[in-house]
Records
---
Amino acid sequence: MSGTWITDLTHFLDRDGELSIYVMSRRIASQLTSIVAAVTESPSATLQETPIPCRRRPQRKACPGRIHAGFECGTPNILWSCPVCYDHGLIHHWQGTRWDKGGRAGLTQINKVTYRHGFTDDIEDEAGLQTIVLDGPTVTPDVIRAIHDNQLLGCSGVYGDPTVGDPLQIDQLEIEHAGGSSKITVYNRAIMLFATRDEFYVQMHRVCSRINTR
C-alpha cells in the first residue's frame, strides 16, 4: 500500500546540513534530497518525470516507477509521486539546504519590484519615503527566491495600525508579475515585530532586508 509523506527536510539533517547518521531510513532521506535537487535544478509548477527511481518494493519487487515532482501551485512546497505504486508526498523547509539548486517555479514572472520605506508624520505624504526600484536584470534570483519562499505574492493588502506610531513607519512592497501586481503596505512594522513576532511580519522583514542590500 502506498503512503503519504509530509516531510520537513531539516529533520533529516545534522548541524552541518548533512544527512544525519541517526536517520532511520537513509534510503528515504536520499530519495527526498534527490527530489529537491531535481525540482530546483529544473523548476516546474506541474509534476514532471524525473530520473529518480521509486524506492518502494511492493511484494518484495522493486517498483519500476520514476518519481514525478514539481512545486505545489502558489506555495514553496515540493510535491512528488510515483505513477506506478502511487507513493507520494510533500517536502517543506528544504530551502537553503545543499540540495537546493536555486531554481523556483515562475522565476521569470517577476518583472519589477518597488520597495518604499521610512518614517512620516503624514500618512498621505509619501514624498519623504526612500524608494528602491528593481527592474530587469536588477531583479536578481536572490530577491525572487526570497519573494517565492516567503509566499508574498498572495499577501496583497494593508497590515498594521497607522495610529499607534509617532512618527508613522511605512513599508510598502509592490511586485509586478505576469499575473498582475501584488502590493503590500505595512504600518509600524518594527512595533509589530517587537510586540507579536507574527510570522508574516518576520517574512516581510526578511524580504525587505534582501532588497535593502541591493
Note: The two ends are 50 Å apart (CA to CA).
---
Amino acid sequence: MRIIQSDCEVIYDGRGHTELARGIRLILIKDDGTVIIHRTTGVKPTNYMGSVVSFDEYDDGERHVILAKSKKEQLMIINYNMVVDVRMPKIPDDADFNNVGTERQQQEWLSRHFHEVFGESNVYIMREFQTGDGSCDLLGYDTVHKRAVLIEVKRKAVKKDVYQVLRYRDAVMKAAVERKHGILDQIPSGDYSLSMFDKPHLILAAESVSRGVENECEQHGVKFVCTGTEWRHDTVPNSVARKDVNKYATRTDANDLEPVSSSLFDDNE
C-alpha cells in the first residue's frame, strides 16, 4: 500500500469528465491497484477508481504526475508538493469479520452457563424450541418444581418481548391441555412428559433493560435476568453458534447438575 499526502489537483475521465481544483489531499493506492482520494475531513472519498490496469508516474518540472488507467477510465493526480509519500510492504490480510455479541452467540453462551445464570435447579435442554407459536430461544427444566423453563434472549429488551414469552407459554400450555405429545418429539434427549408444560416458568434474558420492561415483566409473572456484556469475551464464532444449535443439550437428571462456585443471579422464584 502507498500513502500520499500532497498539494494536488485531480482530473478524471471515464463515465464523465470532472476536475478537482488544487488542495491538500490524502491519496491511498492499495496493493490491488485501487486508488482512493480523500479530503482532510470527512469519510467519503472525492475520487476513487478500482480495477486499475496500469500506473504511470513522471515529473514535468514543477509537478509530479500519477496517471492511473483502467479499461474505460483514467485518473490523473497532479501533485505540486508531495508532503508525505510512504510505500508500505505488502502484508497479508485474509482475516474475515467475526460478529461478536450477536443474539445467536448470546444464546449459545447461556446454554453453556445455564446453571450459574438461571439457578442450579434449572437444567438446559435445547435451543430454538418450537412452541407452536414461534421458536423459543432456550428451553430448560426446573428440577425442583418439575416444570419447563421458557427463555427468550435479547440484546436489549423492550416491552413487546414480554408478550413474546407469554405467547410461547400459551402455546405450550394449550399443547399440554390438548395432549399433543408431538411437541416433545423435538427434544433431543431425556424423558419428559406434557405435564412439564402445565405451568412453565418464564424468563426474559437481555444485556440491559428499562424500568418499563421490568414493570411489564413483574405484571405478567415473567422473570427478568440481566446478562450484562461480559459474556462477549467467551463466545464461539457466530457461524458456529448458528450451526451447532443444540450441541450442549443434556438430560434432565438431578445427577447431571454441576455445582458452581457462585451464582450470578437468584434462583427461580
Note: The longest helix spans residues 159-177.
